[in-house]
Structure formats: C-alpha cells, structure tokens
C-alpha cells in the first residue's frame, strides 16, 4: 500500500490507490 505522501495528487492518487491497490 501507499502512504499519504501525495497531498497534491490526493484526488487522483486516492482513486488509483483504491483501484490499483
């Protein structure tokens, strides 16, 4: 899993993390 280090891309990254795991 990824840590919350992408505050700027949280909107896009959050979705990718959930889909990509």
Descriptive report:
The chain is mainly alpha-helical. The chain is 52% helix and 0% strand. It is flat.
- Overall structural class, as computed from helix and strand content, comes to mainly alpha
The geometry reads as flat
What is the averaged pLDDT score?
60
Number of helices: 1
Poorly predicted runs are none
The strand count comes to 0
Percentage of residues assigned to helices: 40-55%
The Rg value, from CA coordinates, equals 7 Å
- Spatial gap, N to C terminus: 6 Å
Biggest sheet record: none
The fraction of residues in strands falls at under 5%
Succession of helices and strands:
H
Please summarize what this structure is.
Residues 1-21 form the PAW domain. The chain has one helix and no strands.
Write the layout of secondary structure elements.
Layout: H1 10-20
Based on the model shown, name its key terms:
about 0% strand; single chain; mainly alpha; about 20 residues; PAW domain-containing protein; 1 helix
């Amino acid at each position: 899993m990824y840590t919350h280090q992408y505050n700027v891309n949280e909107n896009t990254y959050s979705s990718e993390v959930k889909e990509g795991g």
